[in-house]
Amino acid sequence: MTWQNWAGTASAEPASRYWPRTAEALADAVKEAGAAGLTVRALGSGHSFTPAAATSGAAIDLSGWTGVISADSESRLVTVRSGTTIREINAALATLGLAMPNLGDIDAQTISGAISTGTHGTGARLGGIATAVAALELVLADGSVVSCSAEQRPDLFTAARVGLGALGVVSTVTLRCVPAFDLAADERPMPLAEVLARFGEFAADNDHFEFYWFPYGKNALVKRNNRAAEPPPPRMPGWRRFVEYEVMENTAFGALCRTGRAMPALIKPLNRLAAATLSKRSYSAPSHEVFVTPRRVRFVESEYAVPRESLLDVLAELRAAVPRLAHPVMFPVEVRVAAADDIWLSTAYGRDTAYVAIHQYVGLPYQEYFRVFESITSAVGGRPHWGKMHTLDAKRLGELYPRFADFLRVRDETDPDRRFANPYLEQVLGP
Ligand SMILES: Cc1cc2nc3c(=O)[nH]c(=O)nc-3n(C[C@H](O)[C@H](O)[C@H](O)COP(=O)(O)OP(=O)(O)OC[C@H]3O[C@@H](n4cnc5c(N)ncnc54)[C@H](O)[C@@H]3O)c2cc1C
């Protein structure tokens, strides 16, 4: 059965496919595939734009390996099966009075897929989802099951939290959760010049700050989400949420994108129209409802993590480059921030980070845009999101990650025969 990712940028024909529903079945699948001489890849929800999960060997589909295994209300440690989606985790945590400290834009990913590629949200004092992982259980190449944490096999733990599926199949993930909290959301259009001038202030003064900039418009949509003060701002009525997020950001925006794809000469004015119709919203809601928005308009994406102090230079170059592209850009640029962390292959390893994500509507040319973007971010030591489109190879990535060699050492120790190899890992980690 053909496997394809969400964006349609990667597909594969796995030689065999497993749907484990127990820990034993998961370990047996790895053993059986090994005995048949097949390489092994775990499948998450297919939301990586890169062919990270693609395999012509054995694909282990984790959609039946889901749910909460244990939850400790005192330590707030919650252990889940690796195929559990973030949506399912949010729902389960809400019933326990708990929440994830920070999340990305969507909740369709599996927890293991999300951490394996370094999925992140925004917040200058917060890390990506993998920084909330307290322990992992992994099935190694020989089918053995090992646990790791900061105390137990610390090197494996530091490597496997953002492990690209290169070290084994993650079987369970223990998350360090926080008490459930509401966020007060403030979303408003603002002149891009003002956002850039106040970037440092906005990043420092808000729990979660990000902005979207339509490349041909003068306005950015600024999102500032903060732990709700007492009394919190009002909830957004369901009908308004539907209009704002489903109609404006999906149905109407999707219609603009389809028009632009059919008539590329209209893309620039449509882009300006989208920027001009941005509206102000202010409301409060449980944190996961604020973090996550529906994304039904399909796109392709590249995202680079750059040193935070380089952000303004990167955007200045991007602003200069976009009008010169042969093919116009339909989608906005998204800018987020994260705190430095200590996970070897985390894009925020060792440095306070700004993330710049560029997108293009599916079916429109993106190659030149993404190439230009990559050359701009390369000049400042940009590190690509492991799940988003890029062309960097192991040699270049080795220069960008100070502990790259340590990751390769752990890979050699845990998977000397490259049971978990695929062409993407060959590109980014080497043979
Ligand atoms: C609409 C959209 C919005 C997005 N928003 C964000 C965002 O806000 N922030 C962000 O950082 N990223 C974002 N992404 C990227 C996305 O979060 C990552 O690509 C993530 O890896 C997808 O998770 P998945 O479950 O689909 O994993 P997949 O794409 O299926 O797999 C990713 C990798 O993880 C490996 N893997 C999966 N499960 C396991 C396991 N159990 N053990 C070992 N390896 C495993 C796979 O083999 C593969 O290498 C977005 C993507 C889309 C399409």
Approximate strand percentage: 15-25%
- Amino-to-carboxy terminus distance: 27 Å
Number of separate strands: 20
Largest sheet: 8 strands, antiparallel
Shape: globular
User: Kindly state the mean pLDDT as a whole number?
Assistant: 94
Unreliable spans are: none
What is the structural class?
A: alpha+beta
* Rg for CA atoms: 21 Å
Task: List cofactors, ions and other ligands.
Answer: flavin-adenine dinucleotide
Please describe the structure with a list of short key phrases separated by commas or semicolons.
8-stranded antiparallel β-sheet; globular; alpha+beta; 431 residues; 5-stranded antiparallel β-sheet; binds flavin-adenine dinucleotide
In short:
The chain is α+β, with helices and mostly antiparallel strands and about 425 residues long. It contains 14 helices and 20 strands. α7 runs antiparallel to α8, α10 runs antiparallel to α11 and α12 (about 395-400) crosses α14.
Could you characterize what this model shows?
The chain has helices at residues 23-35, 86-95, 111-116, 154-160, 192-197, 199-205, 238-262, 267-276, 287-291, 311-321, 367-378, 394-400, 404-414, 423-429; strands at residues 3-4, 11-12, 16-18, 40-43, 58-61, 68-72, 77-81, 98-99, 133-139, 145-149, 169-176, 178-179, 182-191, 208-213, 219-227, 281-286, 299-307, 333-338, 353-361, 383-384. The chain is built from 14 helices and 20 strands. With 431 residues, it is an alpha+beta fold. Strand 6 (68-72) and strand 7 form a beta hairpin. The radius of gyration is 21 Å and the shape is globular. The chain is 32% helix and 25% strand. The strands form 5 sheets. The chain has an 8-stranded antiparallel sheet with strand order 16-13-15-14-18-19-17-20. A 5-stranded antiparallel sheet has the order 6-7-11-9-10. Bound molecules: flavin-adenine dinucleotide. The site of flavin-adenine dinucleotide has 32 residues, from strand 4, helix 3 and strand 11.
